[in-house]
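Structure in, sequence out. Go:
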């Protein structure tokens, strides 16, 4: 329990200390008009209060990732605690805050455009394709599990004592499985959230869903104190507890498995949505940095809960070998919080991915519209852009979920690498402390390159060769950045 409490305290302290430092490095201007004011259009650019924007940002980023990723990540052992804490404070929150504030300073510009301005046109084109792919993957991934959970709830609360469904539901199920009816319903909601002004659906529903998700996290947190003896401790050792430890090393596998809850490139695609709704630059730290720290806390809670509920790392691995994280989440919620509390908690888990999926597809629409220079003020134009995005997302859903999740995780972390390098270049151009993003950029470069070379869904190359390749690529990027700094310095001397 001691390790968990210390980790929790560090996350909170990190927000107030390192979050404030990051804010000073950026240099906010509370008198500078924000795009929510200067470009207000009643659709995407709408000024909203801090608490509402925070909850929307939190739900945008806190989908299945900090829950499922943390549950699967804790299989590696207490080392997951360290990655969640230090990854959140020094990498993820810095990534989210600075990418969001850069978008704010550029009238709510989408991520590929920001990266392109800093790293060049060629990288911008790659980012456009990469970001769209990731967002469509998110839209697909964050439909499957909510639909499964909703189908399970439908059966649980409609079946009689013998387990028989009502006649009307049996007829509905004979036409199309219950799960697919929920898939259709979720997609209809996605379409509405994607097309309507941001304050009509997202701005009104997200605060409710946000409170549900936070209730769930707080409820599980309280119950952890009643199961303190089962919680893992750092003193138990940082060696690999994964059941396939011989082929699944902590580095880089754990750093890909736990993305949301430590650092996630997906977040930078969502930040421009809220950058278009901030009334003042002072709101940036609680909205961007604060939402990421909150997600880290959620990931920490679920990582600890998974071990505490099952009793040990071995029990957890055996449980997940025959089931899915979604089933475990259901059992933890109902087992610890009772029927009503469990239902509310489960709804939080359902709505969290749904509210990430809808804004992911909304971001995809905006990114596509930006590089196509396709005005989005009319409903007709928004529908034209949305149809192929929805079609692609639905087609990807046909892929096996486990495979889909692994590719999503790698794409997610790779996107963070692009973003961190863009942030680093911008900080250097502005004469600010670029080390706060350079170190995470170098580390995540090694992680993502090593993973894609070593992983079975990648090139499946020897582990040592894969890690060495990751280090070499990171060093190459470091050399290029050093060359950029030297050229910039020489130019400044000539101009001076």
């Amino acid at each position: 329990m001691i390790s968990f409490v210390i980790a929790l305290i560090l996350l909170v302290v990190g927000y107030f200390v390192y979050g404030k430092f990051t804010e000073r490095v950026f240099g906010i201007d509370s008198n500078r008009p924000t795009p929510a004011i200067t470009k207000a259009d009643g659709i995407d650019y709408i000024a909203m209060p801090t608490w509402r924007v925070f909850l929307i940002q939190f739900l945008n980023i806190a989908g299945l990732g900090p829950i499922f990723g943390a549950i699967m990540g804790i299989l590696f052992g207490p080392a997951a605690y360290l990655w969640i804490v230090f990854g959140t404070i020094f990498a993820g929150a810095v990534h989210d805050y600075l990418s969001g504030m850069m978008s704010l300073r550029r009238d709510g510009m989408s991520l590929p455009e920001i990266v392109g301005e800093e790293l060049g046109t060629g990288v911008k084109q790659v980012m456009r394709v990469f970001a769209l792919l990731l967002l469509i993957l998110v839209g697909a991934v964050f439909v499957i599990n909510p639909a499964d959970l909703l189908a399970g709830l439908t059966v649980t609360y409609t079946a009689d004592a013998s387990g028989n469904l009502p006649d009307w539901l049996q007829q509905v199920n004979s036409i199309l499985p219950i799960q697919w009816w929920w898939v259709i319903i979720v997609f209809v909601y996605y379409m509405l959230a994607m097309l309507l002004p941001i304050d009509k659906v997202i701005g009104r529903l997200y605060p409710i869903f946000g409170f549900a998700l936070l209730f769930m996290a707080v409820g599980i947190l309280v119950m952890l104190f009643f199961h303190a003896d089962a919680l893992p401790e750092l003193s138990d050792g940082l060696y690999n507890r994964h059941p396939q430890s011989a082929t699944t090393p902590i580095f880089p596998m754990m750093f890909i498995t736990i993305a949301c809850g430590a650092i996630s490139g997906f977040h930078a695609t969502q930040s421009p949505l809220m950058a278009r709704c901030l009334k003042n630059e002072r709101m940036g730290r609680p909205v961007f940095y604060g939402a990421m720290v909150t997600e880290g806390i959620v990931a920490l809670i679920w990582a600890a809960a998974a071990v505490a509920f099952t009793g040990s790392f071995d029990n957890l691995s055996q449980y997940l070998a025959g089931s899915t994280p979604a089933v475990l989440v259901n059992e933890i919620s109902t087992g610890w919080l009772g029927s009503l509390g469990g239902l509310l908690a489960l709804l939080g888990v359902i709505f969290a991915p749904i509210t990430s999926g809808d804004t992911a597809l909304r971001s995809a629409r905006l990114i596509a519209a930006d590089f196509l220079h396709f005005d989005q003020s009319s409903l007709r134009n928004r529908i034209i852009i949305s149809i192929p995005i929805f079609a692609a997302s639905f087609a990807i859903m046909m892929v096996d979920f486990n495979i889909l999740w692994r590719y999503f995780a790698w794409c997610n972390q790779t996107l963070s690498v692009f973003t961190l390098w863009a942030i680093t270049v911008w900080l250097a151009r502005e004469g600010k402390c670029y080390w706060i993003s350079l170190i995470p950029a170098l580390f995540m470069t090694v992680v993502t390159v090593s993973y894609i070379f070593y992983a079975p869904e990648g090139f499946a190359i020897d582990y040592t060769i894969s890690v060495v390749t990751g280090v070499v690529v990171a060093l190459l990027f470091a050399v290029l950045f050093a060359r950029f700094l030297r050229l910039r310095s020489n130019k400044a001397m000539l101009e001076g």
